[in-house]
Amino acid sequence: MTTDNVKNLFEHAMSEFLKTNYEKSAEVLDKVLELEPDHKLALTTRGAAELKMNRTDAAVESFSRSLKADPTYAKAYHMRGLAFESKGDRRAALNDFNKAIELNPQYGAAYHSRGTLYAQMGEEELAAEDIQTIVHLTNLNIETFANAQNVWRSNQLRVEDMLESEMHR
User: Fold this and answer.
1) Under 8 Å CB-to-CB from 10, ≥6 apart: which residues?
2) 20 contacts 8 by C-beta, under 8 angstroms
3) Predicted confidence (pLDDT) per residue in 47-106, tens digit
4) Nearest Cα residue to 61 out of 49, 34, 24
5) Which of 108, 107, 110 is nearest to 96 (CA)?
6) 40-52 helix and 56-69 helix, angle to the nearest 10 degrees
7) Which of 20, 22, 33, 71 lies 20 to 30 Å (CA to CA) from residue 11?
8) What is the C-alpha to C-alpha distance for residues 15 and 20, in angstroms, rounded to an integer?
9) Domains within the chain, CATH numbers bracketed
10) Which of left, alpha, beta for 72 (phi over 0: left; psi -120 to 50: alpha)?
């Protein structure tokens, strides 16, 4: 099977996932994985579908396989942490949230998950630190977005000025 077929199957699986057809999504992802066993996005998405269907052991397995394919994939650590948390294994969840943050210090969702877990564990100071980090990252993202919009707007105005001057020649 070609790369295009894998891509088409994966897109179909994602479409089913977005429609909350998790069972169908997992079935299609299994087909992707038959063709490409180390497809980290298929493994991670299958894990997410399994988590949505409350199949936490299967979810942990999918996320672990994704991490074997790519040990630097912060999202798979974060998602596996959510699965561990769902199983009641706070220590394993915390380890995975920490690893996700270590790999990607800008990963706000991992801070949110870790902060929530800290709050549940009664670690109020640590939870507050993660909340502060989330606020900081949010402000950085807003600033980055605003700057990008200003650059776009400046370029757009230059183009409009150029077009206007061309029209009045």
Assistant:
1) 29, 32, 39, 41, 42
2) no
3) 999 999 999 999 999 999 999 999 999 999 999 999 999 999 999 999 999 999 999 999
4) 49
5) 110
6) 170
7) 71
8) 9
9) 3-167 (1.25.40.10)
10) alpha
Question: What token pair was written down for 23?
Answer: 């069972």
* C-alpha to C-alpha distance for 82 and 125, rounded to whole angstroms: 21
Q: How far apart are CA 78 and CA 48, in angstroms?
A: 11
Per DSSP, 105 falls in state T
pTM beyond 0.85: the answer is no
At residue 107, φ and ψ (nearest 5 deg) are -85, 90
Distances (CA, A) of 93 to 5, 17, 68, 99, 110: 35, 24, 18, 10, 11
Q: Which distant-in-sequence residues (6+ apart) come within 8 Å of 101 by Cβ?
A: 74, 107, 110, 111, 114
The CA distance from 57 to 34, in Å, is 20
Instruction: Establish how many alpha carbons lie within 13 A of residue 74's alpha carbon, considering only the half-sphere containing its beta carbon.
Output: 15
Q: And the tokens for 116? A: 């929530």
Tokens 């099977």 locate to 1
Q: Which amino acid, residue 167?
A: M
> Which residue type is seen at 63?
F
